[in-house]
Automatic annotation (TrEMBL):
<comment type="subunit">
    <text>Homodecamer; pentamer of dimers.</text>
</comment>
<keyword id="KW-0460">Magnesium</keyword>
<keyword id="KW-0489">Methyltransferase</keyword>
<dbReference type="Pfam" id="PF02548">
    <property type="entry name" value="Pantoate_transf"/>
</dbReference>
<feature type="binding site">
    <location>
        <position position="49"/>
    </location>
    <ligand>
        <name>Mg(2+)</name>
    </ligand>
</feature>
<feature type="binding site">
    <location>
        <position position="88"/>
    </location>
    <ligand>
        <name>3-methyl-2-oxobutanoate</name>
    </ligand>
</feature>
<feature type="binding site">
    <location>
        <position position="88"/>
    </location>
    <ligand>
        <name>Mg(2+)</name>
    </ligand>
</feature>
<keyword id="KW-0566">Pantothenate biosynthesis</keyword>
<keyword id="KW-0808">Transferase</keyword>
<feature type="binding site">
    <location>
        <position position="118"/>
    </location>
    <ligand>
        <name>3-methyl-2-oxobutanoate</name>
    </ligand>
</feature>
<comment type="similarity">
    <text>Belongs to the PanB family.</text>
</comment>
<keyword id="KW-0479">Metal-binding</keyword>
<dbReference type="InterPro" id="IPR040442">
    <property type="entry name" value="Pyrv_kinase-like_dom_sf"/>
</dbReference>
<feature type="active site" description="Proton acceptor">
    <location>
        <position position="186"/>
    </location>
</feature>
<dbReference type="GO" id="GO:0008168">
    <property type="term" value="F:methyltransferase activity"/>
</dbReference>
<feature type="binding site">
    <location>
        <begin position="49"/>
        <end position="50"/>
    </location>
    <ligand>
        <name>3-methyl-2-oxobutanoate</name>
    </ligand>
</feature>
<dbReference type="GO" id="GO:0005737">
    <property type="term" value="C:cytoplasm"/>
</dbReference>
Length: 281
């Protein structure tokens, strides 16, 4: 199918079935207009908890709440008709145990209409993933660098180098075995990502991992150049819209100060213009 042909939104099983096929395309989105722009180009769109850093100015994802995810999830849902909607479970909404995870995942699905949730963690989350999947909630797992755990991981470091590789591989096996329909591999060395992709039966979605993964995801504000606080090595800038937007704002400010805006074409006359009479013949 061409990138722009009209398609039906895939579900979790459609995504699972894409293992080893044409790479899955995904981006994050947090607003309706951005979701509309990416709808026909993406297989799934993630409302990531990165929303906290990208749109709300937080310094990590730890302060993101269920209410924020629901609000942005509803906004993104309005912009999608062809791509699947996946929403992140925020920090503190699922780690206590399967029941807490079910309650909050069910709320995300009921209030946003999302088709699946994503949660961070490997072996330690397998029981929770199994519980959710058995009760009708498709789960995308997220292993490697899990940003909700930066305080125990010691920062945004590559995960799975040297002796750590076996632990990341065990995480991948655990989430796949528990029934996750796909797994995000974040900041995992390329060879390890390729090994995991070859070993597990579900699609791997890379972010700072390998082109050999079954799909890729990026934070949209990173790849479009809106988020400029820092640029991770794994981000490719496909556009530089931040500086472009600032130039537009600067020009507007200069126009206002010079009374060059609004111009004659932007203001209204006292009298409504006369209605046009249809021409004869
Ligand atoms: O929150 C997020 O945006 C994510 C992606 C980076 C995978 O989890």
């Amino acid at each position: 199918m061409s990138a722009t042909a009209k398609k039906q939104a895939p579900n979790a099983e459609d995504i699972r079935a894409r293992k080893g096929g044409t790479p899955l395309v995904s981006l994050t989105a947090y607003t309706t207009p951005m979701a509309r722009l990416m709808d026909k180009h993406c297989d799934f769109v993630l409302v990531g908890d990165s929303v906290g850093m990208v749109l709300h100015g937080l310094t990590s994802t730890l302060g993101v709440t269920m209410e924020m995810m629901i609000l942005h999830g509803q906004a993104v849902a309005r912009g999608l008709s062809q791509a699947m909607l996946v929403i992140d479970m925020p920090f503190g909404s699922y780690e206590e145990g399967p029941q807490q995870a079910f309650r909050n995942a069910a709320r995300l699905m009921a209030e946003t209409g999302c088709a699946a949730v994503k949660l961070e963690g490997g072996v330690e989350m397998a029981e929770t993933i199994r519980f959710l999947v058995k009760r009708g909630i498709p789960v995308m797992a997220h292993i490697g660098l899990t940003p909700q755990s930066i305080n125990t991981l010691g920062g945004y470091k590559v995960q799975g180098r040297d002796a750590q590789a076996d632990a990341v591989l065990a995480d991948a096996r655990a989430v796949a075995g528990a029934g996750a329909f796909s797994v995000v591999l974040e900041k995992v060395p390329q060879k390890l990502a390729d090994k995991i992709t070859a070993e597990v039966a579900i699609p791997t979605i890379g972010i700072g991992a390998s082109a050999g993964c079954d799909g890729q995801i990026l934070v949209v504000d990173d790849m479009l150049g809106f988020f400029t606080a820092f640029k991770p090595k794994f981000v490719k800038r496909y556009a530089d819209l931040g500086p472009l937007a600032e130039a537009g704002i600067a020009e507007y400010a200069a126009d206002v100060r010079a009374r060059a805006f609004p111009g004659a074409e932007h203001v209204f006359a006292d009298q409504a213009p006369a209605a046009k009479t249809p021409s004869k013949g």
